[in-house]
Design a protein that fits this description.
- 35% of the residues lie in helices and 21% in strands.
- It is α/β, with parallel strands linked by helices and 336 residues long.
- It folds into 2 domains: 54 residues, DNA polymerase, domain 1 (Orthogonal Bundle); 280 residues, TIM Barrel, CATH 3.20.20.70.
- The structure holds S-adenosyl-L-homocysteine.
- The site of S-adenosyl-L-homocysteine has 18 residues, from strand 8 and strand 10.
- S-adenosyl-L-homocysteine binds next to strand 8 and strand 10.
């Protein structure tokens, strides 16, 4: 709940309104029970416990990369579900990559998070807990958030928006919208809905192919909508919010990395205010797809640059702990 909602609930309970702010300010401290809210009268703590649920995330497993200090957490949620988050250390600050669902319904052929499908949406507080408890456990101040973990954030729209308001609140974690990226596989209507909210976050779109045949083969979501409609929605998003779209493109050997794909991608994005982030495909043992060679990636970049497209290659962090894109998944601990 946001402070104003808490306030309403408290007033209905016959409590003074100022208690709302006191309670809300305990959340970033990672309290695990109402009893830890020591500036509240004891009987109020008790009645809060009777009326409200305080979610927490417990560290079930923590892996720290020996190569770059990246930390991967497997969290046990209040109902016993598991999700993962990854803390990455960059020069511009520490970033946490959070999950938005337990599993994922989107079925992308290259991604481990979707194996086993979607179990449930995360509640706003369960997404927030990943930020709070990553910061507390790691002792690293989190300044940036990427919604690029398990799940499709726009398939859990209302809860994700509520999470954004919570984490952005000055009395909470106070993380600015410009420090938050949200990644989607491209749910067109939801992109328009998000544009309508005019938030200053960065929208990343997992494009992965410039044509319908290639994209539909690896991303079932494309069969409903197609690349044309997706790119139109992205342009509308930019017009509405003024925020440049970032397109993610996982480089998959002989699938989406040919010179023809590069040329078509360049042509389709030319004149669009955007940025392309190439992701060398990360290994997911269950998938037969293999990463492109470094030479192919180089040629792909050159082809895009010739067409005036802004391109970068995503750095791989935490390779020794399988913390990279597409490698997070529910139930890992059961298989190991
Ligand atoms: N559902 C959202 C959020 C996931 S973000 C989305 O689809 O965007 C994770 C990013 O990693 C997405 O761009 C996803 O397509 C990409 N990804 C998934 N599996 C991958 C893999 N094996 N190698 C590289 N990138 C992968």
């Amino acid at each position: 709940m946001l402070p104003e909602e808490l306030e309403e609930a408290l007033v209905q309970m016959g409590q003074p309104a100022f208690r709302a702010k006191q309670i809300f300010r305990w959340f970033p401290a990672g309290v695990r029970s109402f009893d830890e809210m020591t500036n509240l009268p004891k009987d109020l703590r008790r009645s809060l416990g009777e009326r409200f649920v305080l979610t927490t995330a417990q560290v079930e497993r923590k892996q720290v990369s020996k190569l770059d200090g990246t930390i991967k957490y497997l969290w046990r949620l209040t109902d016993g579900s598991f999700v993962e988050s990854v803390v990455m250390r960059y020069e511009h600050g520490n970033t946490v990559c959070v999950s938005s669902q337990v599993g994922c319904a989107m079925g992308c052929a290259f991604c481990a998070s979707t194996i086993g499908g979607k179990v449930r949406n995360l509640m706003p507080s369960e997404i927030l807990d990943q930020v709070i408890f990553s910061q507390l456990d790691s002792g690293l101040r989190i300044s940036n958030i990427v919604m690029m973990g398990i799940g499709e954030p726009l398939d859990n729209f209302d809860n994700v928006i509520r999470f954004l308001k919570l984490v952005n609140h000055p009395d909470g974690m106070n993380i600015g919208m410009r420090h938050i990226s949200l990644s989607t596989c491209g749910l067109v209507e939801k992109i328009d809905k998000l544009a309508g909210l005019d938030l200053q976050l960065t929208l990343s779109v997992s494009l992965h192919a410039p044509d319908d045949a290639t994209r539909s083969a690896i991303m079932p979501v494309n069969r409903a909508c197609g690349v044309d409609r997706l790119l139109d929605a992205c342009r509308r998003y930019f017009e509405k919010t003024g925020r440049r779209i970032s397109f993610e493109y996982a480089m998959i050997r002989d699938v989406n990395d040919t010179p023809e794909h590069a040329a078509l991608l360049g042509d389709r994005l030319a004149g669009t205010n955007c940025h392309v982030n190439l992701i060398p495909l990360n290994d997911v043992p269950e998938s037969k797809l293999r990463p492109s060679t470094p030479e192919t990636i180089k040629r792909f970049i050159a082809a895009l640059e010739r067409r005036g497209i802004n391109v970068t290659v995503r750095r791989k962090l935490g390779p020794d702990i399988e913390a990279s894109c597409g490698q997070l998944r529910r139930g890992r601990m059961k298989t190991q």
